[in-house]
Amino acid sequence: MPMQITGAEFTALAQDFERLAQVVDPARATSLMEEAAQPILERMKANASSNPHPRSGRLVGAINTGPPTKKNGGITVTVGVHRRDWPGDPYYPAYVELGHGGPHPAPPHPYVRPAYDAAAPEAYERLRALLDQALK
């Protein structure tokens, strides 16, 4: 369905696109994404430090936001324990999240997925507010 925009409407639309292009600058977009991801990061650290009992500071200290990556025409920021940032061996964050079978079996103690499920709506709303503020 064709759409026709003329005069002041076109000028206003063009200005909105110019402002959006400034916001979507990779450095600015990365900053907004990292800021919006904070609720998930905080929840994940809280889960890792107390689910089901206090954990070592090594796991909690390794949880952070990863570097931004371009994916499907957008920018992605990850939250969690990134293997390249883990200090030495053994690498066990996945075994805490998913559990393991031996030699001393341990049940799963999820800290990643529950954090995402609980804090994603807040992170999304925060991102919307940050983008709205940036556009204004």
Radius of gyration: 20 Å
Tally of helical runs: 6
User: Element order, helices and strands?
Assistant: HHHHEEEEHH
Question: Strand percentage, roughly?
Answer: 5-15%
Distance from N terminus to C terminus (CA atoms, Å) equals: 30 Å
* Structural domain tally: 1
Estimate the helix proportion, in percent: 55-70%
Assign an overall shape. elongated
Structural class: mainly alpha
How many strands? 4
Record keyword descriptors for this entry.
mainly alpha, two-stranded antiparallel ribbon, 6 helices, 136 residues, 4 strands
Write the layout of secondary structure elements.
Elements: H1 7-23, H2 26-36, H3 38-50, H4 57-62, E1 63-65, E2 69-71, E3 74-76, E4 79-81, H5 93-98, H6 113-135
Antiparallel strand pairs: 1-4, 2-3
Helix pairs in contact: 2-6, 3-6
Describe this structure in words.
The chain is mostly helical and about 140 residues long. It has one domain. Helices cover about 55% and strands about 10% of the residues. The protein contains six helices and four strands. It has helices at about 5-25, 25-35, 40-50, 55-60, 95-100, 115-135; strands at about 65, 70, 75, 80. Helix 2 (about 25-35) crosses helix 6 (about 115-135). The protein is elongated and about 75 Å long. The model has no long low-confidence stretch (mean pLDDT about 80).
